[in-house]
Amino acid sequence: MTFPAAYDGVLAVGAVDRQGNHAEVSVSGKQIAISAPGVDIYSTSYKGLYRKGTGTSDAAAIVSGAVALVRSKYPELSAPEVVHRLTATATDKGPPGRDEQYGYGVLNLVAALTADVPPLGSATTATATPMAPARTTAAKAAASPPG
Fold first, then answer.
1. Bridge partners of 41?
2. Three-state SS at 39
3. Which keywords has UniProt assigned to this entry (predicted)?
4. Which of 26, 64, 76, 142 could form a disulfide with 15 if both were Cys (CB 3.0 to 4.6 A apart)?
5. What is the reported pLDDT for 138?
6. Which CA distances in Å does 20 have to 86, 92, 102?
């Protein structure tokens, strides 16, 4: 895993293609906590134009938006709790559980905003889906712009 995703406190994001499979351009590694769409993503560009991008930066931008929505709906949650909510509700892909291509799975925003997620550190949390690694501590996980 390379930087900036390898820094402590950064939520490492992988990318999936249009079919929801690990994207060819995506990074892999033990730091990946969650994946999101990262192929053919339309976004704003220079001089009022739009662009079509592909890569983990585009996937990270989508996860950043999800973080903002979760923090808006659940303002009492800390940054690690927000990440826990995202990873606990992600749609598992690849081998069961966490893996180096998808992390805990692909972002499921509807579930992140509506599911009944046990609090971080509860007995049911440990047996269901554990939180992303300690790398997601600090406000950086919820406040850092994607890179």
1. 53
2. coil
3. Hydrolase, Protease, Serine protease
4. 26
5. 31
6. 17, 11, 10
Distance CA 41, CA 126 (A): 34
CATH top-level class of 12-139? alpha beta
Show the 3-state SS of 7-19: CCCCCEEEEECCC
- pLDDT per residue over 1-45, tens digit each? 677 878 888 899 999 999 999 999 999 999 999 999 999 999 999
Decide the pairing of beta strands 41-44 and 50-53.
Answer: antiparallel
Neighbours of 29 (CB within 10 A): 14
Q: Which two tokens stand for residue 39?
A: 């192929």
Q: List the structure tokens of 139.
A: 């406000």
* Spacing of C-alpha 101 from chain mean position: 12
